[in-house]
Design brief:
heterotrimer; A alpha+beta (about 140); B alpha+beta (about 325); C alpha+beta (about 170); A: about 140 residues; alpha+beta; two-stranded antiparallel ribbon; globular; C: about 170 residues; DNA polymerase, domain 1; five-stranded mixed beta sheet; 5 strands; binds flavin-adenine dinucleotide
Amino acid sequence: MHVHRIIAAHDCGKALNPMTVEGQIEGSVYMGLGQALQEEMVWNKGRLMNPTLLEYRIPSTLETPEIESIIVESIDPEGPFGAKEAGEGSLAATIPAIANAIYDAVGVRINTLPITPEKILAALREKEKQRAGNDAPGTNGGSR
Amino acid sequence: MTMPASRVARPSTIEEAVRLLADNGPEAVIIAGGTDVVPNLQMKLFAPRVLVDIKPIRVLQGITIAAAGALRLGALTTLTEIVGSPLLQASYPVLVSAAATIAGPLQRNMGTLGGNLCLETRCLWYNQSHFWRKALGGCLKKDGDVCHVAPGGKRCWAAWSGDSAPALLTLDAEVEITGPRGRRRLPLAQFYLNDGMNRIALGRDELVTSVYLPARTAGRRGIYHKLRIRDSIDYPLAGVAVTLEVDRSGVCREARVAITAVNPAPLLVKEASEWLVGQRYSAELVDRVAHAAIRTGKPLTTSASTPVYRREMVRLFARRALEEAWKNGNA
Amino acid sequence: MTKELIRLKVNGELREIAAPAEKLLLDVLREDLSLTGSKRGCDDSSCGCCAVLVDGVPMLSCVAIASCYQDCEIVTVEGIAPPGELDPVQEGYAVAGGAQCGYCTPGFLIATKALLDHNPNPTLEEIRLALSSNLCRCTGYMQIYESVKLAIERAQAREAAKTAPVGS
Ligand SMILES: Cc1cc2nc3c(=O)[nH]c(=O)nc-3n(C[C@H](O)[C@H](O)[C@H](O)COP(=O)(O)OP(=O)(O)OC[C@H]3O[C@@H](n4cnc5c(N)ncnc54)[C@H](O)[C@@H]3O)c2cc1C
């Protein structure tokens, strides 16, 4: 599984420092990417099994795709100098974007994070089984 | 975390190193690049009195041509040197592609081939801080008498998690070991004991001095596939190395398949050479060998990802690597 | 505890430190030499925050036992440029947003410096690979690549200025 490119547009109100806003968007997207595909705290009877950066795998440069950030400026009359936020919004959107891209590519929905190849494989098999089950009785579809 | 107090000895000859090891017995630990042993020391997985730093031993460095056209890789050859060696790239590509997947570039600048072949076995219940392990009363491998992976068992399943060993197994490599009684050479396959606690056939007073690659496996087409979650800085969760020699008419003349990270040792899949030599490519044959590969692998929950998935990937990698190596012909 | 005299050339200066034999280079740099630029970011040598140059090669000071590197030449982030000056690599990161929280930055600066020292004009793929031992939680790496590209430009500009005939 490989994410090729992520484009993120974010309404941050007034961009007080555009370079920093872009950095915040890209960083948020990165954290969303990690949460979507590979980061997981693994618990066993209340014990954290992966309390290190080796086993809690935040993405490295190699699997982090090109991230393109687009600042959408608006003026928020309530915010300081018209600003809203630029820290977390793009993180939240990244996860469903990746989940939807996977659905678009292979037709299965995974509803727990991280979305691992193992979960996708299991879901594809389940789907295959259901299709075979639907086809089987009284039709000549049969199982493939 | 801190380092346990110890003396550091820096021998500059093999003889001196052997003497230090012999004199200190189980109280001595060899350190080469330190990328495996230093994190483990900080986790208090061992508390040696003497650290024997072998880096000053010049004769353990570098890649040279040995007798009968074999290639000798000194134990201190770094992984970066292996990845960048034009000689290895041309003659033993499977080793280069396996070494290139190890950790990240900074670890490869420090990590040595000898250290990679003598890596400590790994397990989620073992590679933890002292504080973490203490809460559990330890495990079979360290400070305890229970295996948390296979409770009730008396065998340690900590996984062999090195990448270069499977590649070297498919090249019929030999390790040279030096001890008080001199030098001996061992096929790499016999170096591994498939026991999580007693991983290698190396005496307390011995060290690995070289690795030999025979001339007859030079030029063999080879492929290494590694399962990992992160593309860098990640030990293998499963790995398959394949080398093939295919003649002009498409008949397989030599074949090796080795697997890693799914047993306490890197292992050759014995059936591969038996079944493939003398045969032409067929999907059914390749499938059968891939199936033998998963019968050889016995992954348990020693790492991330489930044993079921890791087995499945062993099969897929074996099939894919054989297909690629066969179809792309012999270099 | 056996203390040992450790002799290192750090950022161009000869330093002698009496420290426990097993002490890590990272701790010697931070505690004995007050060079706190290099960071401890993890417990298992997986993050790259502690990177320093050892005889010109980027390495992890958290797995290096200082007494095993007797007489080696160490360059930390403090020594990339003379005091009061900035190396093009530092300029790149300062200007193009390569540092957010800054904790991983010393490691990235060292890895970048090592890359550009032997490959002054790397491709994006080469940059990615060279930086793949370093983890960053903030930037998503994009502005780090921008910083490296800017560093390359600045270095080239300095080179050009040096070779340009006076007065032109
Ligand atoms: C974050 C991280 C990720 C990693 N990922 C991988 C990975 O993906 N794949 C992988 O294979 N490895 C990985 N490693 C482990 C390690 O970097 C490499 O295996 C490296 O090659 C070890 O070599 P070294 O010289 O640093 O070994 P050391 O740590 O110096 O030694 C390792 C072991 O071998 C013994 N030893 C060393 N040299 C000899 C010798 N000549 N004779 C006898 N015994 C010896 C030591 O006593 C010790 O038990 C990783 C390490 C880290 C820190």
